[in-house]
Amino acid sequence: MLGRLKRWWSGPSASAGARSIEHWATGRGWAFRNVRSDQGFVIDGSHGGVAWRIEWGASHRPYIPGPELRFIAELGLHRDLHVLVLNRLLMEASEAKVFDEYVEGVQTRVDTQTPTEIRWLVMYSKATPGELRTLGARFGAVASVKPWLLQWLAGPLSPALLEAGRNLPEAAAFVLSIGRGRLAMRLGLREPSSARLEAWLGLFQIAMAEARRVAGEWPDSALPHASTRPSVWPRDETASRL
Length: 242
Known about the structure:
This protein is an alpha+beta fold.
């Protein structure tokens, strides 16, 4: 996985277009389709018997300007488990904004206009830089069950995130979250390429595998089986509103 990330960081610029991405996806047996008048696409695949989806198109989050790359997988985790890992600058700016709005008594605005995962910053336990170790300089994290979060980061997910952090602009938005039983990852990406998608998919698959590992060690945090039929995903060609 780390080798794939390194190849991406030093690889060709993202200019191949949707056609080469379609060839990359279908060549691996995944389903590809364009959406929104060819201004975005969806790729459906699976890893370890669990379905995942990649979406690229218009941003669904105010903290990501321009086009957005999204990943989602239904893992069958407990629906009350909420975990969030994000770049530190985004965490600090979002945390201050949400806190100020609560203090000013405009909770209605927070509830209706602030993305769910950003509200978690003031709702759940925060991991300290010391607990995050090498990740602490570039990333922040909160969780409804902090030991679950720390166990998730204790394996290969941390070095993969660390490499991503070293090569992303410090202010670039990056969010990895668990909520409603599913794993999601989102970041800004103006021009996708198969190399970029492969690198980010590798990171996402590590996050999937590690989440399932921790769920197995925490029997109350997961259902008996992860979903291979993500019924919450839309069947039409409109990208899902993660």
